[in-house]
Design a protein that fits this description.
The complex is a heterodimer of chains A (about 300) and B (about 230).
Chain A (H helix, E strand, L loop, with lengths): L2 E12 L2 E7 L2 E3 L3 E5 L6 H8 L7 E6 L2 E2 L11 E4 L11 H12 L4 H10 L15 H14 L4 E5 L7 H16 L4 E5 L3 H7 L2 E6 L2 E7 H7 L2 E6 L3 H11 L5 E4 L3 E4 L6 H10 L6 E6 L2 H9 L7
Parallel strand pairs in A: 4-9, 4-10, 7-8, 8-9
Antiparallel strand pairs in A: 1-2, 1-3, 1-5, 5-6, 10-11, 12-14, 12-15, 13-14
Helix pairs in contact in A: 2-4, 3-4
Chain B lengths: L1 H10 L3 H24 L10 H33 L2 H5 L6 H38 L8 H21 L2 H9 L2 H16 L12 H17 L10
Helix pairs in contact in B: 1-5, 2-3, 2-5, 3-5, 3-6, 3-7, 3-8, 5-6, 6-9, 7-8, 7-9
The chains are: A alpha/beta (about 300), B mainly alpha (about 230).
Amino acid sequence: MSYIVSTRHVSKEYKGREVVSDVSMNIERGQIYGLLGPNGAGKTTLMKMLLNLVKPTSGEIEMFGEKLMPGSVELFKRIGSIIEYPIFYEKMTAVENLELHCEYMGFYNKHAIQEALERVNLTSVDGKAVGEFSLGMKQRLGMARAIMTKPELLILDEPINGLDPVGIKEFRNLLRILSKEYRMTLLVSSHLLGEIEQVADTIGILQGGKFIREMSMQDMRSEQTEYIEIVTPHCKEAAFVLENQLGVSNFKIIGDSIIRIYESRWTQQELTKTLVLHDIGIESLNHKHTSLEDYFMQQIGGGEKHA
Amino acid sequence: MLRLIQLEMKKQKLGWYVRGACIATVIIAFFMWLMPYTEDSGDPAFAGYAEALSAAGLFVRAVFIVFASVLLSRFIIDEYRNKTMNVMFTYPVQRKRLIMAKMLLILSLTFVSMIIATLIVCLVFLAVNIRFHFIPGTPEGSVLLHTGIRLFVQTLSAAGVSLIPLYFGMRKKSVATTIVSAVIIMALLSSNNQGFTLSTSVAIPLILGILGFLVAYLSFRNVDKTDIL
């Protein structure tokens, strides 16, 4: 299997404090890789290390199969990136900024600029300095800049920040197009788990600088716990019936009206029938998956523990 | 490299620099005109043409060293502070070349404007002198030539020296440090001790100029290994 990005035991220390510790991450060609983690987990530092902006204290990084050295620059022709937030020369217009980018990248295609701006739906901004743009517009322009040269690898740090709901949806589609049509490999970090869940092929979770898990979304889905959620006004009675009549022990009461059953011994019909027979009102009864968000909370230990 | 310098010029609008340089030149010329009126002890302000023109050159160099530090702040320090340097450093161009391009641009801008300003101030002074006779007699061609050569060498050296503030400014990426160190360097170079200044001879300024370039290089020698936060 060919990895486009591969880190081996990479650590970074700032003033004696480890912000990234012992991370071994592998990104396959053509994948969308979602990098998750709470604020300050080291996502940005890790991404900066891939871009050679920050040097690892120990460990090795391989990009496109070659070891990343302090003076490596040729590989940047193949990478597009947004780190932290999109940065531009604020006094110049969007087009001027993109022209400059083309020059430095050594990329000459007159149509690319207009094409990229249309891709991110950022037209009719002629003559306006980037300094007057809103965060959402800058984010779109940053995206345009990153994809303009059709790089093989896109590194996007929190690219959804500042986008409106429509923008987020467009962005999601854009990621899919880049991945499917242009065969780009994408590394995307975000705290909006729902968004990552919808597009990522593989996720990696960072917490406190440590790499907790790396797994494909497919594996994650199969590992995700399924449960049946019952919404009822008679929560206590229902719990009693479940425990004593049906022998269900692995369930959890959430709030005043929700019960989650983590056993699959009983079908939905059987549960409904038994509860109704005992005069317990049911507002709804559904089969559910834990979302990536629940999974994430579980992994970083910041959320509720399931029974 | 030339392409990189052109890109820098495209990025940094230079209108303000040209305007500032013009205003400074006018003020220096005016100042030179007033100089002869300041001494009331009876001694003339300038003993001869050579001294007068040297003084003009000294003023111009002092002012443009400070201008250069503003250029250094805008081109290099500000790019670090605005984090546009983060973007620059993800381009397939060696970082040293990027910064070298900026330095060369600043060096040539400073040198060219120093030469032009010196020329203008000297010509204005000579023209005014014809009318007011601060210095008796007409200037001899050999004196003018000798002074001209010396001014040229001193200007070349000053352009090199003008890069030194980068070394101090880069340590904390501070605009204030850059400009303050330029003012201090200016004060040192133009300090006058019984008629002997550091720039009187030719050798000292030349060494200083080369030293200036080296010191500036030192400030980004490790740029490939440094973290960009």
